[in-house]
Amino acid sequence: CTKDLDRVPFYDQTSASVYNDFGNYKAILAKLYAGYAISGQQGPAGKPDLTGIDEGFSNYIRQYWQAQELPTDEAVIAWNDGTLPDYHRMTWTSANEFIKATYDRIFYEIAVCNEFIRETTDDKLGSHGISGTDLEEAKHFRAEARFLRALAYWHALDLFGNVPFSTENDQVSASFFPPQTSRANLFSYIESELLAIEPDLVEARQNEYGRADKAAAWMLLAKLYLNAEVYAQQQKYTETITYCNKIIGAGYTLSDQYRKLFLADNNTSPEMIFTITYDGIRTKTYGGMTYLVHAPVGGSMNAATFGINGGWAGLRTTKTFVNLFADPSGNTDKRAMFYSPGQSLEINDVFTFTDGYAIAKFRNVTVTGAQGSDKTGDFPDTDYPMFRLADAYLMYAEAVLRGGTGGSAATALQYVNQLRQRAYGNASGNITSGQLTLDFILAERGRELHWEGHRRTDLIRFGKFTSATYLWPWKGNVKEGRGVEDFRTLYPIPAADRTANPNLNQNTGY
Amino acid sequence: QTGTISGKVTDETGQPIPGAAVYIKGTNQNAIVAPDGSFRLTANNGPLTIVVRMIGYQPIERDINVNGILQQEFQLTADTKGLNEVVVVGYGTQKKSDLTGSITAVSSKDFNKGPITTPEQLIMGKVAGLQISSNSGAPGANSRIRIRGGASLNASNDPLIVVDGVPLDNAEVKGTSNPLSFINPNDIESFNILKDASATAIYGSRASNGVIIITTKKGKAGDQLRVNFSTVNSLYKREGIVPVLTGDQFRQVVKEHANAAQQQLLGTANTNWQDALYRTAFGTDNNLGLSGSFKSLPYRVSIGFTKQDGTLKTGSLRRQSAGINLSPRLFDDHLRIDVNVRGAITNSRFADQDAINAAAQFDPTQPIHVNNKFGNYFEWIDPTSPDGAPYTLATRNPLSMLELRTDKGEVKRSLGNIQFDYKFHFLPELRANLNLGYDVSKSEGRNVIPAYAANVFNRGGTDKAYSQTRNNKLLDFYLNYTKDLKGISSRIDATAGYSYQDFIRSEPTYPDLNEKGDTINAPGVPFKTQNTLVSFFGRLNYTLLDRYLLTVTVRRDGSSRFREHWGTFPSAALAWRINQESFLKNAKVLSDLKLRIGYGETGQQDFGGLLTDYPYLPRYTIGDPTAQYQFGSQYYLTLRPEGYDANIKWEETKTYNVGLDFGFLNNRINGSVDYYIKRTKDLLSVIPVAAGSNLTNQLLTNVGNIEARGFEFTLNATPVQTKNFSWDAGFNFTYNHVEITNLTKVQDPKAQGIPVGTIAGGVGNTIQIHTVGYSPFSFYVYKQIYKDGTPLEGQYEDLNGDGAITPDDRYRYKSPQPKFLMGFNSQFAYMDWTLGFSMRGSIGNYVYNNPASNGGAYRDFSFPNYLSNVSTSILDTKFQNSQYFSDYYIENASFLRMDNISLGYNFKHLFRDKVRLRVSATVQNAFVITGYGGLDPELGNDKVGANLVGEGIDNKFYPRPRVYSLGLNLDF
To answer: What angle do CA A5, A7, A13 make, to 5 degrees?
Structure first.
């Protein structure tokens, strides 16, 4: 009876068998995308991908968003959960569990992508008998997996800098300690990966909705190059313009109304280049858009108008951000989506929801005001707009202003004014070429792209994240705001991973 | 007319008992049993009572009717005080005097009395080194059972439990909170607690946390029908309360500390929500047992009926159980067959225990009922909602949570085995033993909440079903050879065997519906898992000169849970019966003195609920329909590659034990002392893996070492024994210290440790940490600064001296593990009266007073749109903001608990001595002496699924009731 000791699972498959059936490939690819969207296999909670943290907190978009937005002028949060308040105070340490969750989520995504990439080499595909159109499709899948890994590595590059590095050439192991790579080397790796997969990706706007195409890779390249001075002390503004031009030339158009980009039916927008998709019935999580729709609702805000059953009374913004708008009422610039009744502009107490204006941007209602598909009002249909055309316009303009070639100041001005025209509903908000300065770009990126997960990266690129030249309430844990240590432009490697992996050195300052 | 009575007197193993006295009651007629066990006695025809007595055994009285020649067999049961007592060990029995390992036997006459619904409560506080405490006051609640504190960190610390030779698995049985509750406590004859590795190693890879062997009652050969009926009827009264503000106090505090909008929310009522939640509950436990011998077939049949309501309203438990034991002895006793079958149907209604915290937090100025659409339960409304929906962030009405929820489960479970023990005709020293067993259960349950209940209002109610089947099989076979080698004054007793055990658990999935039947969450992937253990084992007992004893065991276990299936677990033990040496043999006072030394290696492969049964396989799991991803207009189920450790294996524990057993005055005073060291390596730990190296962030792998040292002392005595009055007393004492000695794959002295112990307050806050050099679950807190005895808010000692208070200033302070445990029980008998009590003490265990910290600040009621009650600790601390991590909330929770006081009266002489009646009155959980400021110093485990995530955190605790009961026991 010792043969009975070789038990195998009843419902699960094993890596030995799962790749024999091509039908499984798309399901695994779906998991690589879902790794960004949701937190586990059960939805909204249960069978989590990550453990050691509340599952709702472990979601990629929620963690990435918090790391990018909470330490900036754009967002404060009222909750006293663990070390969460340290984000806005800019007093985090290497023990911060939210930073650890962000880091864990990024490397989880990299690991599952590595697994799929490892199992879909030409040799492996051949040995599994994948051929014909299946083979063609498998190549697209593999390129997308490499894109998703490059995206996660870009987040690691941006947030943590010098990080452990593993690829499909490493095996899954309980005792493998990935070596640490330098920020500059990681920059080169991501660039090389994106360039390498470009031919294998589906043409721009030709892939199924939700899946990455060439434009998604161009967008990531453009972002990589725009920040190359921060990442690798190299000026790559010309390359930024090159890839912005490719994107813009691919046929994307702006949504006619700004608000439509953040609603339950935003998947229909012609402006989206890459989104993380959600569905109130089939893609459920307590992170992601559930968080971004519920957490900003509180005070006297009517939850029903957001298509949800109640707010979580957490997220608001600072007056520094409100002041980027000459008229915060929303009557002129419609991107000023503040909710102010019962809210004070000043934040005396970060933990009081009514201190600070709320932002009524993300909603689970359609253009016509109808609630999303989940009638309980828990889980939105709204997709997370990770990359959209407006961002490419602004990157183009910034790269031109920073001296990149291949574009023109006139086109830059035209792109910026297209955004302002949409925001104002007419040409009254248009600017002149004299007004198009780098400072204007930073402010305009705030107005156009606020709460979309760009702010920390932008402030760092403009030298305003840690310095005392740009302050907002409670920056540095004082009400008026103060400058903080420069080393905080990078997050610390979580202490737990330095315990687990002897190859890792801590980032300077921590 | 005279007749003759002849027959045999044997012990439980069938060995003859020469020298035993057989006599007829009320006469001088008697006989002495011959060396082969036989006796012969003449008597007058007609009814008479025959009595068999032997020192060290319990006497038997039997009513017979002589008419000519009568054949009678008597099987004497060893007296527990006697050294000839037979102790059940793994795969066999041994005389107590021959034991070399640390084993404690507790038989039915020493069990705790009173309303006992689950087996382990029978021996609570009775055994040194065995810690049993109920995890809550809910009816049929499970218990935390620890032998010598357990040897694991993340894997299960539950001992292996073996019922009539069938090892149980510790997997959760859905629909019941206690996996042992299917065994009727009244059917249990004895518990044998195997503590050290030399005793447990025969169970190999499941033995590290000790073994508890449960033996059920059986009929006896030659007995006439005996009927036992018992009934216990009890009242359960809630004890203790979470200290929170009264309505008037709360109004005062809100008026002083809240803003105008919040003051507007105040009501005028004075509701004690905790009082409203609980009730005085009734319970009844009735058992009927029939035993005897039908022709030559000894049998015992029992049925039981238990019903108990919970003190938390709506909860209840109803159990019907039945058991049959048959013990035919064939071929002149060469073939002994034991058949045990028992089954139980348990019907439970589960009260929503979340209501416990809700009651502590609910605004005491609000009434319970108002006229509204939520079933007329007062609820907080979202003021911005046009249709008056409940405010989603607010606490829900605790009574509504209980009374509107119908969460019922039914579990059918049966455990049985048939054991053949054949003594070879041509070689009686050799026995072959075959044991075939099964353990099956089927659970079904359903939770229904109507659409108008506020906590499920938005989804239109709840209707969620579940079910589970478990199917475990066992086959054991062993050969035993026993031989006295007179020439060399030796005896050998050798056993070699094979065991096969298979466990299957299956859980279909159901849609999560609302009241109308709309699907809220589509059903997910069903769950089914299997694991198999194949083992070979052997034991050799060698006795030289009746005083030098050697036991060697070895087990080779194969587990389907590991890629490298096989592991070997050896043990050896020596004992020296010092009092048998010539220089002590004549010492009248000393009746027993035995030194024991043992060493053994055991394993642990029970992950608790940590993972599946396939931790070494690279698996891909299918996601549920609620976790799909959209491509184009289609949604795809996902396949997730799971993290795994291809090289995972069992934990290994090495145990060293030295013990001394002693007895004086013919064992009227007896006891034992043990000292042990347990070192576990390759702990099955869930640890953070190096980022990017595996398909998860935390992996179950073999990392870490843990070391436990302990000391146990047991003393039993009969201080007084006169014709009319006797006093038996037992005392036990345990010291156990557990320390983590390694926790990481890479040695890093600066490693902070692994945070554990999630608390209520915020999300994801933890209060404990596993660190090398400290006890598991040590509290990790700030050192509070006080002024005139009052804690100063936010002021902590700057322990790392960097001039700022940061998370790095936390320190490891105390742990929930008690330093010392004590048990004390006494039994007084005067004429026909008996009075007994049993007490337990725990010293040096600390508790995090979570109700005091969460709700310990004025901010804790300052939520928008609703109010939340706060802890009375606020009146002392006056904290504005929560100070979750202050060591102020770590309290010494040492306690002394009177578990049980029982007074009984025996009516011995009813119906011409034919009927014995005992009536008793018992108080359970009579009192607790403690300095702890919260509800109860003795807490349950904090678990998520079967995973232990914290210990010693006072949160949502279902208070243990005080129980008053009246019992009646009828024997005829």
So the answer is: 155
- Supply the DSSP symbol for A218: H
The lowest-confidence range among A238-242, A276-280, B905-909 is: B905-909
| Residue indicated by tokens 């990359």 | A387
Task: Give tens-digit pLDDT for B49-92.
Answer: 888 877 667 778 888 888 888 888 888 876 544 556 788 888 98
Give A390→chain B minimum CA distance, Å.
Answer: 23
Average pLDDT over residues A457-470: 97
CB contact, 8 Å: B613 with chain A? Answer: yes
pLDDT tens readout for residues B406-457: 999 999 999 999 999 999 988 989 999 999 999 999 999 999 999 999 999 9
Establish if B451 touches chain A: CB-CB under 8 angstroms: no
B502 contacts B453 by C-beta, under 8 angstroms: no
Query: Percentage of residues in chain B with pLDDT exceeding 70?
Result: 97
A-B contacts at Cβ under 8 angstroms: 331
Closest CA to A179 of B448, B690, B590, B128: B690
CA distances in angstroms from B197 to B105, B147, B664, B675, B678, listed in the order given: 16, 12, 28, 13, 9
All CATH 1.25.40.10 domain ranges of chain A, comma separated, are: 212-277+390-465
Any B CB within 8 A of A353 CB: yes
Share of chain B above pLDDT 90, in %: 56
Closest CA–CA distance from residue A270 to any residue of chain B (Å): 14
Spell out which residues of chain A touch residue B559, defining contact as CB-CB under 8 Å: 5
**Quick one: A212-277+390-465 is in which CATH superfamily?**
Tetratricopeptide repeat domain (1.25.40.10)
Any A CB within 8 A of B831 CB = no
Predicted confidence (pLDDT) per residue in B459-494, tens digit: 999 999 999 999 999 999 999 999 999 888 899 999
B230-264 pLDDT, tens digit per residue, is 999 999 999 888 999 999 999 999 999 888 888 89
Nearest CB neighbour to A174, from listed B530, B640, B699: B699
Cα separation, B29 vs B42, whole angstroms: 8
Q: For the whole model, what pTM was predicted?
A: 0.89
Q: What is the ipTM of this complex?
A: 0.96
Domains assigned to chain B? 2-78 (2.60.40.1120)
pLDDT recorded at residue A404: 96
CB contact residues (below 8 A), chain B span 530-589, against chain A: 530-532, 534, 558-560, 565
Q: CATH number for the A18-201+477-505 domain, one of 3.30.70.141, 1.20.120.530, 1.25.40.390, 1.10.8.60?
A: 1.25.40.390
Own/partner long-range contacts of B940-946 (Cβ < 8 Å, ≥24 apart): B940/B133, B940/B134, B940/B135, B940/B136, B940/B141, B940/B144, B941/B135, B941/B144, B942/B757, B942/B758, B945/B172, B945/B609, B946/B156, B946/B170, B946/B171, B946/B172, B946/B608, B946/B609, B946/B610
A16 touches chain B (CB under 8 A): yes
Residue B610: what pLDDT? 52
Q: What pLDDT is stored for residue B946 in this prediction?
A: 44
Q: Would you call B945 an interface residue with chain A, using a CB distance cutoff of 8 Å?
A: no
Calculate how close chain B gets to A2, using CA atoms only, in Å.
7
- Would an 8 Å CB–CB cutoff place B447 in contact with chain A? no
Is B521 in Cβ contact with A209 (below 8 Å)? no
Give start-end residues of each CATH 1.25.40.390 domain in chain A. Answer: 18-201+477-505
C-alpha closest to that of A90 among A462, A355, A344, A456 = A456
pLDDT of residue B660: 95
Beta partners for residue B713, in sequence order: B673, B733
Q: Which residue of chain A has the CA closest to B458?
A: A376
Say if CB B281 and CB B964 are below 8 A apart: no
- Mean pLDDT value of segment B771-782: 92
